[in-house]
Amino acid sequence: HKDKEIHIVYVGFFCHTAHQSMISHIKDILKQRLNVHLYSNESLSKEIILMVTENNPKIGKYLHIHNYVSPDKLSKEISKYDFGIHYSEFSSIATPKIEELSTGNKKSSYFEALIPIIVQKKMKFTNKDVKKNYLGILIKDIKNLGWKIEQFNYIKSLENIQEFREKNSVESNINNLIKFISTLNEKQDNIN
Predict the structure, then answer these.
(1) Where are the alpha helices (DSSP H) in 61-173?
(2) Measuring CA to CA, how many Å separate 163 from each of 129, 160, 167, 185?
(3) Picking from 77-81, 134-138, 170-174, which range would have the lowest pLDDT averaged per residue?
(4) Residue 92 above 50 pLDDT?
(5) Rounded distance, CA 66 to CA 192, Å?
(6) CA–CA–CA angle 108, 30, 70 (5° rounding)
């Protein structure tokens, strides 16, 4: 970034009942002097913003609220940030099973934009690819995020994301997809 600061983006829904948890975790990020950019189709009220920043300009300057961006423009818009974050405490629907198996669109959105992802260790399905392919940062405690970012090999991760995208693209897997569809058709024919 031109300003030599770290910029983290969160794209997605904020559930009203999750605001307390969300506020707490975003505060922890802001206190580390990390910029947080929020994109949501829900308008975030001034009261929520004040709760996050505690009306404190020292941390408030790191919080950036953006208008909704349509999916076809999202990748380009968020590609200007350093990291995307997928953190289950931003949503009230996160049960232990959902946390374990959730992928959400965030992972795909961030990788399409070629930015590493920050994901909780407890989100096992998502973090499996992240850990195996060095696609981002696994975090247990958000209060250690700044330190984890300092230790992170950003260039290696960007290279790995590009390779991961190519390896997992529809174009690279079209033959497997055709084979799978043919298998389904054969099974359907056998049923009829």
Answers:
(1) 71-78, 96-101, 106-112, 124-133, 145-151, 154-167
(2) 12, 5, 6, 32
(3) 170-174
(4) no
(5) 53
(6) 35
Residue 117 near residue 85, CB atoms below 8 Å: yes
Q: pLDDT averaged over the chain?
A: 82
Collapsed DSSP state (helix, strand, coil) of residue 120: strand
The top-scoring range by mean pLDDT among 14-28, 32-46, 55-69, 152-166 is 152-166
Burial class (CB in 10 A: 0-12, 13-18, 19+), 151: exposed
Of 13, 11, 17, 12, give the one whose Cα is nearest residue 92.
Answer: 17
What span, in angstroms and rounded, lies between the C-alpha atoms of 49 and 108?
27
What is the rounded CA–CA span in Å between residue 63 and residue 57? Answer: 10
Using an 8 Å Cβ cutoff, are 109 and 130 in contact?
no
More confident residue, 29 or 107: 29
Full-prediction pTM beyond 0.85? Answer: no
Radius of gyration of the chain (CA): 19
